[in-house]
Amino acid sequence: MISNVGTQQYILPDFLIIGAAKCGTTSMADYLAQHSKVFIPKIKECRFFSGMTPDFKGPGDYVVNQEMITEIGDYVNQFSGQEQKFLGDASVDYLYYYKNTIANIYKYYPKDKLPKLIISLRNPVNRTFSMYAHLKRDLRETLSLPDAIAAEKEREEAHWEWVWQYTAASLYCKQVQYFLEHYDADKIYISIYEDFVKDTEQGMKGIFEFLELDVEYINTEKILNPSGEAKNKTLQRLIVNKGPVVASIKKLIPQGLKDYFVAKNLKSFRITEDDIALLQPIFKEDIAQLEKLLNKELIDWK
Asked: What is the pLDDT at residue 2?
C-alpha cells in the first residue's frame, strides 16, 4: 500500500506475519508468496518494525546483524516495483518486540490504513524445543536443553539475539494481549499451528479470506526450515555459513541440490519425556491465561 506520513510517501506492506518463531511462519509466507496477487521480499525477515539494533553478541548473531533492515529507505526498497501486488513482510521478531512493533507501525501508517497482522501460535513446549533444535542444527547452541534454559537470563544480559530466549519467547499471552488491546482486533488473525498442520488447505483458505484474496491452488508439500541434528558438522558449517565468499559460491548451486544436501545432512532430533517434564510447568499458567484471552480451549497443548 502507499502510505502518506507528513510530506513523505512510502510503499509499505499490506500485511505482516509477525510470529511466533518456529510456528510455521516460513511455510505460511511461502504459501502466500505463491498467490498470483501477493509479493513477499526474498529477505523473508526484514525485521524493520521491531526496532532492533544490529549489535547482538551471541554465537552466529552476526548473521541477523548483517541482514537486519533498520532504515526506512532500505525497507521501502524491498517492495519497489511491486506496488500493484498485495505486499507482505514475515518477521517473527515482531511478536516478541510487541511494544516496539506497534509503536513503529503507528509511526509509518495512518490509523485508517493499518496493515493486517497474522499471528501463528504453537504448543509452547514444542516451540521451545524446536527453537533449541534449530540453533543446535546451525551449530550455535552447545548446551543441553536444561542448561540452555538456565542460561537465558545471562544470555539476555550479554545481549545475545532474542531467539536464545527459548521460554520467554514462548510465553505468548502478554504478547498477544498487547496487540489485541493496542491494535484494531479486526485486523488480527490468529492461527493455531496444530490446526494449521492438520488441515493446511483449510488454514490457508482462512488466511486468504482474512486478507480478502481469492482462494488459489497452493503447493503445500514442501517442508521448509526443518530442524534436526547435523550428521556431518563440517558439511553443516558450510551449509549454515553466510559469509560473502561462501554465499557467492552457493548462488551457483541449484536450489534443489542445496535442499537435498540440507535434508540429507540432518537426523531426527526429537523431544524426550524429560524435556516435556522440564518445560510443561513453565507454560501451564500462561496457556490457561491465553485460553481465556482467545476464548478457545487449546487441547493439543495440554
From this structure: 76
Is 263 within a domain?
no
Q: What is the pTM of this model?
A: 0.87
Q: Compute the distance between CA of residue 290 and CA of residue 20 in angstroms, rounded to an integer.
A: 14
Bin 22: left if φ > 0, else alpha if -120 < ψ < 50, else beta.
left
For residue 295, is it left (φ>0), alpha (ψ between -120 and 50) or beta? left
Residue 79 lies in a domain: yes
Regions of the chain short of the pLDDT cut 50: 245-246, 250, 258
Instruction: Give domain status of residue 63, yes or no.
Output: yes
pLDDT score, position 111 = 87
Cβ neighbors of 174 (< 8 A, separation 6 or more) are 98
State residue 233's pLDDT score: 55
- Cβ distance 204 to 218 under 8 Å? yes
Distances, alpha carbon 237 to alpha carbons 67, 68, 76, 253, 293, in Å? 19, 22, 33, 16, 43
Task: Give the distance from CA 192 to its chain's centroid.
Answer: 14
Total domain count, the chain: 1
